[in-house]
Amino acid sequence: MQALVEARNLHKVYKADGVETPALRGVDFSARAGEFTAIAGPSGSGKSTLLHLLGGLDLPTEGEVWLDGERLDEKDAVARARLRLWKVGFVFQAYNLIPVLTALENAAFVLELRGLPARERAERARAALAELEMDGFADRKPNQLSGGQQQRVAVARALAAEPAVIFADEPTANLDSKTGLALIEYMKRLNREKGVTFIFSTHDPRLLEHVRRVVHLEDGRIVHEEERG
Ligand SMILES: Nc1ncnc2c1ncn2[C@@H]1O[C@H](COP(=O)(O)OP(=O)(O)OP(=O)(O)O)[C@@H](O)[C@H]1O
């Protein structure tokens, strides 16, 4: 089957104030629809960079990025934004909810950008919140929620849009280990029961025990891949 997400010989060098920092040094990666994949590696190994490139948030210095049969790295910023809006969900370390909006409005936000009618937005956002057991908090603003609850709203926001893939960049980094594990369990259930494709990064080895596919990144290179039956 064709890969949903694919990177070929990906290199990324950041240039700032005349200093060059190589973040990825020739990464080949692919994931099929329905996978639940962890990108593991120590701080600075290039996990965020890889997820940003796979999701079309940034461009590689060299190499190709394919998403659902389309080559991302040759598209301009507007075309990449459109593709992200329709095909990609993101969950970030710092939740990135909009502070003035309620949980329900946050969960509906991507659908609003897509121009969906209000009633359909609300229905889908409410259903997504319910999947994360956050429907009882629909009217709360982010500052009235715990970190774990905010991150569940962020997953609901991604989920409501039914993207082809959800990239989650260290989604548990700001959560205690119990809450972090619970979040991963929510994501795993959505993968198992609804077939949602997740690619998430972590530097916490404890979160990897029950993940089927783990890709280990070190110093900008994939050094090891595990796939458990
Ligand atoms: N915008 C940037 N400008 C310059 N260097 C950067 C930039 N972003 C990342 N880097 C560097 O690229 C390398 C990889 O960083 P990246 O954030 O991808 O790693 P990471 O594995 O996600 O780390 P962490 O677990 O700490 O988030 C690091 O050396 C980092 O300092």
UniProtKB/TrEMBL annotation:
It holds the Pfam family ABC_tran. CDD domains: ABC_MJ0796_LolCDE_FtsE. The keyword Nucleotide-binding applies. It comes from the Bacteria. One of its GO terms (cellular component) is membrane protein complex. Keywords: ATP-binding, Nucleotide-binding, Transport. The keyword Endoplasmic reticulum does not apply. InterPro entries: AAA+_ATPase, ABC_transporter-like_ATP-bd, ABC_transporter-like_CS, ABC_transpr_LolD-like, MacB-like_ATP-bd, P-loop_NTPase. Residues 5-229 form the ABC transporter domain. One of its GO terms (molecular function) is ATP hydrolysis activity. This is ABC transporter related protein. It comes from Oceanithermus profundus (strain DSM 14977 / NBRC 100410 / VKM B-2274 / 506).
